[in-house]
């Protein structure tokens, strides 16, 4: 049975720009300390990130990061301002 690599099957890997906390904070116009706090394990819904040892990076343009940000959109009629809308609450 022949095996094929993902490249041979036509898979095109997605490339993302990897940002550190300071760069992500700058793009979102937020304090770097807030970004760092949202990465910690005690956060209910941490920002999707990649750990390289002690270094944390964010994949700019990734679906995971975009979906995380979308979950924080608050509509004009949403009385739960600032809270994460979990499953079943949307």
Protein architecture, described:
The chain is extended. The relative contact order is 0.13. It has a domain of 54 residues. 24% of the residues lie in helices and 13% in strands. It is an alpha+beta fold.
How many individual helices?
3
Query: What assembly state would you assign to the polypeptide chains in this entry?
Result: single chain
Distance between the termini: 48 Å
| Percentage beta strand | 5-15%
Lateral strand order in the biggest sheet? 1-3-2
The major β-sheet equals: 3 strands, antiparallel
Instruction: Name the helicity range.
Output: 10-25%
Radius of gyration equals 17 Å
The number of distinct β-strands equals 3
Which key terms come to mind for this protein?
alpha+beta, 3-stranded antiparallel β-sheet, 3 strands, 3 helices
């Amino acid at each position: 049975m022949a095996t094929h690599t993902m490249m041979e099957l036509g898979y095109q890997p997605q490339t993302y720009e990897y940002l550190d906390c300071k760069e992500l904070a700058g793009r979102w116009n937020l304090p770097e300390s807030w970004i760092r706090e949202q990465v910690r394990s005690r956060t209910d819904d941490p920002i999707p990130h990649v750990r390289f040892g002690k270094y944390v990076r964010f994949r700019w343009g990734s679906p995971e990061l975009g979906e995380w940000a979308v979950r924080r959109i608050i509509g004009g009629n949403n009385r739960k301002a600032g809270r994460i809308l979990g499953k079943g609450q949307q």
